[in-house]
Request: fold
Amino acid sequence: MSVLSTPSTERASRSGSKVSSAIQQGAVALFGALILYAVGFLPMSAAHNAAHDTRHTFVFPCH
Amino acid sequence: MFRSLILSACLVGVALGLAMTAFQAVGTSPIILAAEQYESPEPVVHHTDHASHDHGEQAGGHQHGDDAWAPADGAERLFFTTISNVFAGIGFAAILLVLMNQLRERGRIAPKAHQGLLLGALGFLAVFVAPSIGLPPEIPGASAAALELRQSWWVVTVACAATGLGVLFLATGWKRLLGVPLLIAPQFFVPSHEGAVFANPDPEAVLALTELHHRFIWASGLANLGFWLLAGVLCALVLKRLSDTGRLSDANASA
Reply:
């Protein structure tokens, strides 16, 4: 019996952690995108000036 | 897993940022500095030229005036450029790590150095080459369409190119071809700029800037190629290590 029940609980926990894994990975990607926005796109002039050479080299639109 | 990926992205980002700073030191920075010599010989002319595509007021105060803070040339500027490079490295590494991990989970790639090189090369095509076809790498002093337009176009183009390349490589049979229009379509909507290429009207300056511009395209291309190949390899190696130590497996998803 226990042999039969283990796979189903395992499957349930696996699908649960799959969702959690997807959310966590989505959060990591969002974190990356936010940082890139700050470095490459933030219109504040101080941010632009600090990251100026980086923006030019990475071909983020600048000026 | 969240923590492992973020920490990895930070670690890879530091390495990438330092590498990019080295590439810049020999490649793009001298060209940027040289181009800035021609940027504003006569502030008044420069500003009226810029007025047509100024993005200051609406964009929350992006100005070219002297009142805005800027790092002093030399060590301070190098410091802030390095920090910015590291942040850019962290940002790109975070996204690349997630993409690679998704492919790994689906069994489409093994996290090995040569697969990392391939994905890095694709990243170079999507993030550098695709937007550069429409809007070539720019040096200071170049005139262009409104900044917001170019930024939106950049984001859409990079997203389309990444999706297009993904479809080309991952789909099967005729469906691969669906990736082609995604690669080409944004190039029909490049924000165009009318008028002189450079704000400086002096023919001698234009000649010098044109030459600098051509050198800059190559220098930035090589710097970005190096950045992306390194990013691909480092992300692949990090993912391999994380999966070998069980920090990416579903069982440890909350770790």
